[in-house]
Each structure stands twice: as structure tokens, then as C-alpha cells.
Amino acid sequence: ESVLWMGRAYESLGDAPAAIDALAHLIIVASSDVRRQEAQDGLSRVLKQQIHTFYERKAWVTLLKFHGDHQQAFHMVPLERERVLMVAHAYQQVNLPSEALHWYDQLLQEYPDSTLREDILVQKVLLAEEMGKGLLVQEVGTAYLREFPDGRWRGQVETALGMESLTRQQYAKAIHHFSEAIQQVDGIVEQRHVLRNRARAHRALGQMEAAVQDLRQMVSDPPVQIADVIRLGDAVFDQGEYAEAEGLYDQVLVSEAPVALKAWAKYRLAVSLDHMGKHGEAQKLLAEIRQLETSSPELEHTIRSAATAVLDEMSLKEKPPARTINEPTES
Predict the structure, then answer these.
(1) How many angstroms from the chain centroid is the CA of residue 265?
(2) pTM passes above 0.85
(3) DSSP readout, 96-153?
(4) Sign of the four-CA dihedral 84, 87, 92, 93
(5) Measured in Å, how far apart are the chain's first and last C-alpha atoms?
(6) What is the pLDDT confidence band of residue 331, given thresholds at 50, 70 and 90?
């Protein structure tokens, strides 16, 4: 009994480590089930309070260190859904997706009928996507849509499945997922991400009109991303719509776009002007690029390669930031 009171005294003084040690020791040496239960209840309370405190402070590293340092004590108390969810969330915040995935798996195993099942499944989809585990994205994403056909995170899941199909060059499948996603996602960043990649899939299948339609929708409302303007310019250029391409490339040239994109826009503008019979203006622009009198395949290849590298880098920044669905304290 003295050990129990000692543990409670440490708890009241705010000395959590000492309280944990005393209560954990009592669980082992208690002479009766009543005392053992009292010690277990006290230990559970102290551990929960510490986890909650660190979580509310967003002290993710401290929370995870505390959880790791006191594993023996945590094994002495019942597994709580809220604690597991907080630990998984903390691992996401410190960018350790594989660890977060492990704890979400444990949560589903321990609580298969949890009211948070929908949220946990979508977290697994987003984590699998972040880790580049395409098969897991397909497996969990398909399971989510099967269990929650009208789920509130359907847009995010359809987008992840679309991106996975795009990576695998399954373009028709990607278009299907993106078309489902565009009806569900909220926010201009998410919508443009879906449209941008659906346009990529359309273009890969040679469906240029559909690709142009998606790209036009992306640049119809501010704020306009200059990379999307040049993508639309290239699409309409390839369609032979040189007058529209001219206006779009002009937008790029007067913007603060990277030098490589401006060089590509200037080159394509010169070719557009040449196709429209404005040969003098075209030659002047080409001369400005590399002081050449005529265009050449080598010139186009060099500028295209540099512009493609910049667009690829910009594409990485255009992806919507990963979101942690739901807060553990809401469970």
C-alpha cells in the first residue's frame, strides 16, 4: 500500500517518471488483485496524461521518445485506441511513414469495427503513396472504395489511385479515377492537381482535345500557375492553334518564370509566328535565343530538355500537401 501512495504522491507532484516506476513496480509485486488493479489504473492515467500533454503541445519527438522509453509500462496497461492513433499521427508529423503505417495497421487489427476505420484506411492510402508502395495504394484504395463508396475521403483516394495508374502507364484507368476524383475534391489546389494529371493521361492517349479542355479549365481562374500556362501553350501548339499559343507564350515571357521556361516559350513563340507567316519576327526571336539565323533540331532539343527539367521540378511542388485525416482527440 505504501508503494501505491508513493506513486500517487509522485503523480500529484508532477514527477511522472517516478510515478510510472512506482506504479509499474506495484503491478508486479502487488499482493492482491485489488491493489494490482489500482496500480494499473494509476499507471494508465499517468501515461495517458503525458501522451496527451505532448500531443497538445505538438511535441512530436518528445511524445515518441516517451512512448519508446516506457514500452514496458505501456505493456502493463490496456491498449487504448486514442493512444495508438496519437502515436501514428506523431510518426506522420516527423516524416516516418513506415512507422505510422505500422501503428495504423495495429489499430485496425485491434479495433476492426472502429468508427475511425474510414479515416484510418485513407491514411494508409496516403502513407503508401508517400512511400511509393503502388501495390499497397491499389489494395487499400480499392478496399476503401468498396467499404465506403460514398465516403467523405473518396476524392483523395480516387486521386491516389489515378496517380498510381498514371505511373504504371494505365492511362484509361487513370482518367477514370481522376474523373471520379474531380467531382469530390475541394479546393483549387486539389482540383488543379487532378485536372493537370488527367490532362497528362489524355495526352498520352492522343486525346488532345480532352487534354486542352482540362488545361484551359486550370488557367481560367486566378491565381494562374505559369507552368500550367506553358503546358496549355504546348498543347494548343501541337494542335496547330498557333494564334492561341502565341498569346500564351507571350504571358510566359512577361512573367517571372524561370529562364529555361522563358527560353522554351520564346522558341515556341518563334515557331508559332513562323507558321503564321510572320517570318521576320520569328527569326528575330530565334536570333535572341542563340544568335542563330535559322532554327535547328539541336537548338530545340537543348531548350526543350532544360524546360522539361524545370517543369518536372515544378510538378513536385504542385502536388497538394499531404493531409492527416481527422484528429485523434476527436475519437
Answers:
(1) 30
(2) no
(3) -HHHHHHHHHHHHHH-TT-TTHHHHHHHHHHHHHHHT-HHHHHHHHHHHHHH-TT-TT
(4) positive
(5) 35
(6) very low
